[in-house]
Structures
1.
Amino acid sequence: MAKCVCVIAEFRNGNFRRVSFEVASEGKRVADALGLELYGVAVGSGVASKAAELGRYGVRKVLVRDDPALENYLAETHVPIVAEMVGRLDPAVILLPASVDGKDLGSRLGAKLRVALVQDVVQIVCEDGRVRAKWPIFAGKCFAWSEWLGGTLPVISCRPNVMSCREPDDSFAAEVENVDVPIPQARSHVKAIDYDTSGKVELSEAEIIISGGRGMKEASNYSMLEELAQLLGAAVGASRAAVDSGWRPHSDQVGQTGKVVNPDLYIAVGISGAIQHLAGMGSSKYIVAINRDPDAPIFSKADYGIVEDLFKFIPAFTEEVRKHKSTCS
Amino acid sequence: MNIVVLLKQTPDTESVIRIAGDGKSIVTDGLKWIINPYDEFALEAALRLKDKLKGKVSVVSYGPPRVVEALRTALAMGADDAVLIDDPVLKTADYLRVTKALTAAIKELNPDLIFTGSRAIDYDQGQRGAIVAENLDWPHLALAVAVDCDGSVVTIERPIEGGKVILESPLPALVTFGGAHAIWNPRYASLPGIMKAKKKPIAMKKVTDLGFDPANFEPETARIRITSLEKPAERKQGRIINGDLDVVGKAAELVRSLHEEAKVI
Ligand SMILES: Cc1cc2nc3c(=O)[nH]c(=O)nc-3n(C[C@H](O)[C@H](O)[C@H](O)COP(=O)(O)OP(=O)(O)OC[C@H]3O[C@@H](n4cnc5c(N)ncnc54)[C@H](O)[C@@H]3O)c2cc1C
Ligand SMILES: Nc1ncnc2c1ncn2[C@@H]1O[C@H](COP(=O)(O)O)[C@@H](O)[C@H]1O
């Protein structure tokens, strides 16, 4: 098979995750720059009937391994299967999502193939047929660029919400080929899987995030932020101070030892802007800070700052958003 | 029960990071160093498991001599012994090579469980743990926010986007740790702990001690390297919405700005 660029698409719960389309779009850019075709690899239960969708984002052909036993990601089963499929494609570059499962798969895949992976890449450059990748280090205080040596296959996981998605071309379907790779015997297993069905917007995927910090004073006051979040279709996050106080679950923590997010809009409410918090949200497109202390460091990062008592401002702001939404729709 | 914890020393989270003259590394003079927070979570989990099941906790690290300080802290927290791979030949080796050396050092300790951080907060690659598992051909369970083990099976909770997964594996197995301080609450080194730590062994190793030919780690064997570091673009100066507006006026102005200027609502 001729050399190609290969994307590993992430399939969960009967659908490709959106980040897979971002990665396919980026893969197409890389493939065009290198003068190669874009191929895909996908593993999951029910993936065969959906795989043609990847064509809309520029994937020409997808190798799939579809089996009910592959419903949930497990490193021990997915990695050897993907390794085998990738081997058949003999790609010049591999791209995959830097999602929770993607990062895990990429790590072990790289080690299995003895090739080097760079995680959480935000930019890929192709020059003279060579690939370079950039990713944030030291919690976004710096970026690193790396290059692959001696003809090694670059493996790149792409940070979600960063690479732009192509306009899907509905007239194009990818060719789908079922490959009959055996499912390895695994020692580990998925004992249970539990999806949040509350309809809550997932923090790492939200376009708008409203986070509350120590200034929120107590757990019950977050209902104020939840009401606002509902109006904006936003997710609610928190600072470590709020999580350590037991007001919010640890999964809501934004920052260096929490989630790294990059929404279009991040609203920090009663958060001082400690460096470890900024590490998690500093790359948001727009940042709003609401704090009664005009000297709070968060203001130096904010596009819009409001110096007010949050307990007065948030209700007023919620009301204005409500008015805005009713006139817009 | 033998548990090995992989520990990296990283700059303190408050550190100002400056790019060195070579353009591809950072200035380390004057930095304060800490145990990578996720490795501290892994260590705390290991120490709790040792309390429950008895046995031994060993910490293994690759890095320069300053890492001894981090290892002493780990020993003071309750780890039993430590290994530091400090070998200049690894300085130019890529991370796949470094992980090979780490794997060899771990093997000598014959663990039932290996605990690592889910990611090191310096170069933030989040992959060494899984690589060690692949090198050993062991199962691994990644990103634990809860862990339990009865001595023969290890179970973790793994958060995924929009949900959580419970994973289980027989031993031996490797677990990488995520979560936050609020979950793991890593213990502080007590004064008696610090005294005891002074007598606990730290083995210093070179790659030859681990059975490797140093030629295996020469720069030309590297598959990847960092070519340059760069600072992020400065954010453009923001604006405090005030003027003579009252609370409602500020709220209205913010809505207008977010809609008309930023176009995000
Ligand atoms: C190793 C390590 C890792 C860390 N990781 C993280 C992390 O992942 N995420 C994180 O967030 N932090 C992290 N931290 C903690 C960080 O240093 C700060 O302590 C924390 O971010 C502070 O949270 P805060 O801004 O909510 O609280 P504070 O710093 O106490 O700020 C509260 C703010 O609320 C304002 N306020 C109070 N009342 C009102 C009111 N009525 N109206 C308006 N404003 C009000 C105050 O003026 C103040 O600015 C970490 C620290 C360490 C050492
Ligand atoms: N130099 C090192 N020495 C020991 N353990 C390490 C080292 N580098 C990484 N690790 C382990 O691997 C985990 C993931 O690191 P990384 O892949 O660098 O993000 C860390 O949390 C550590 O447990």
Note: The helical segments of chain A are 18-34, 75-89, 100-113, 222-232, 240-244, 275-281, 310-328.
2.
Amino acid sequence: MSLGDVEVRSKSRQIFYSIILIAFSVPVIMAFSMLVLSSFANQMVTNFDFSKVRFTLRNWQLLFQGRIAITGGLRENIFLYLISTAIVALGVAIVTTLVGTLSGYAISRIRFKGRKFVLLMMLMLHALPGSILIVGVYFLYRLWMPTSLNALRYFSFFYVIVARAALEVPLSVWLMKGFFDLLPWEIEWSALVDGASRLKTWAKIMMPLIKPGVVAILIFGFLAGWQDIIYVRTFLIDKTLATFIESNLEAEMAYMPLLAAAATLYLLPTIFFYISSQKLLFKVYAGGIRR
Amino acid sequence: MASIVLENITKKFGKVTALDGVNLQIDDGEFIVLLGPSGSGKTTLMYLIAGIYRPTSGRILFDGRDVTNLPPKERNVGLVFQNWALYPHMKVFDNIAFPLTLKKTDRNTIQQRVHEVASMLKIEALLERYPWQLSGGQQQRVAIARALVKQPQILLFDEPLSNLDALLRIGVRTELKRLQKDLKITSVYVTHDQAEALAIADRIAVINNGKLIQVGTPEEIYYKPRHTFVAGFVGNPPANLLNVEFDGTKLTIQTKTFQAPVELLQKISGRRRIVLGFRPEKGILLDRITENAVGIEVQIYEVESMGREQIVTVSIEQTMVKVLRPSEEKFQVGQRLFLCVDIKDLMLFDFDTNEALDVQ
């Protein structure tokens, strides 16, 4: 075997690694493609026997008409669910990003008492699954919950966003601290000497420089909010796509292809963001900070 | 344009004392260089002037006004960092305009002022580029332009030339000095390069271990060092420093005894040990001892040619001494000669305090 440059992997090895990676991905890819196929079929696709399967757009039509899978006749407002899902997801994304970037900056750049302690507590909090914390979180909800039903509806949105974001905050703070640590002090000092306040420096100099990191936690926050079911189910008065699918699954007789369509719709942003954030995370080091 | 007074400045980082009771006065329009080895506290002192650090104790005055507790943005200083610290996500124009946009200056004034400094520094053609598209020298001009655009009362330079290649450094050095003279802005310049300091400064402040060792014009620093540290740090090669014992009539280096003119003996009478120093170019190598000079027998150890001149290293037993001689003189390794230094070129230091002896 001839030796190439250090950074060039030999061809045979490359092929070997690719085969292993593909082998591990096959079950996952199969599952997803069966789901997507089912959403366009008259019955669930569970094997490679396609003789009884007819492909149709009916499931998607039914879905957007708001038919639910149990009775087929009852109508629910699927668009409203989409909107509430988006509100929760966007809310979690924005709260996580704001808290993450601001506290990440403070922990990275400002020396204050209890800084290490805060960091360690964050790590602890991150280690606990959200479902364990839910009892305590529920008590707080009961404590603050307004009595008027209309107000409660809005409050439940606010609460579920903040509560769900709190679970994402530790990781994003750690991530952002890491990003801010990478920025040279001189750039910040330079901005301070140029006449900027600490907050202006953060907004105009630091944030643009760690844009890839900010976008990454924005996406992580969005997906966390989009995917969440436990917090949404416990606190939110309205339904989201997740709780909609879940409530349909509870029935004994459900028209599964319709649910497959709902699940595919529900998957779209996740797939989209994972693919795009993958590229972004690779870019963090290549084009993040140039000097 | 302002004078700077540093009163009894002490700065501690935790248990480490970075600066210890520094007193320094900088006149309006003066170009002062803070010179010292790395870790001496010179950059810390400059950051204190900029307001990036706050002193642990002591006061800083600009034009008599106490600015000790003012944040950097209220001090109106321009700072050029060692790595230039340009904002990578902004074009050159926006980099230079940044201090002005923060002051909410109107668009036309910004345009005009940026173009003014850009033409002064000959970077007008680069305004639409990003910092990473520029060479080191160009980036540095941008950094200087950014410091100048806000018309600061004080300019601070943190080793601005150390990231440039040697040839460019000398050119930029000249321009910087000229620029400072034209604008008459009080400037503080930090460097560890003694040649740069000698070339550029009105006055040099030598700092070591957080203490101000000596402040003076380049000539004073070079020819009349007040401390062995200054003598041993400034000059290339730096001054020779020899530990000499004295028994009242003759001088001894290690075991080598030598005579000295009475004039010198009177100056050091009553002392048992002193440090004798002299600049390499002041040493003469002859086959006899000249008048009014200290002479000692030495052996040529090595000769290094530097083109115009040569560094001759000679040994007095185990002690090595460097002498700078014109290249026309020829020396052989192993040759025995007398090293003579005129007594007016000798520097005398106390053995214990390392400070210069006050005898004329």
Note: The radius of gyration of chain B is 25 Å.
